[in-house]
Amino acid sequence: MAMAAKTVIKKTMSLCLLDNSRFMVRVDYEEEILKKFKNYEGRQYDPVKQTWSFPLKEFERFMADIKELKKQNFDISFAKNIPQSLTKKLIEYNNNNNNNNNNGFIWKDL
Hints:
single chain, alpha/beta, 6 strands
């Protein structure tokens, strides 16, 4: 008797810059990441848009949390409006944490 293939459902997350001091995240419901978000200093949740926003000073922490999410079938999209300094960190992070593939990062206008 053959075993049925297990279906893997990818979750999505998108990130964009709100202004020069905050970034916004839209994410499919995932209890583990929401617990992390609730510990970020200066967090704000918009229940109408179902988005989170954080001060840019929390960006490094966010990137560390993303590293864990990448193991949990998340596709993560970054808007093109992210400033060069953050883009550099994202590229360095991506280059240091993948094996010549996109590793789930998608760059696009959001």
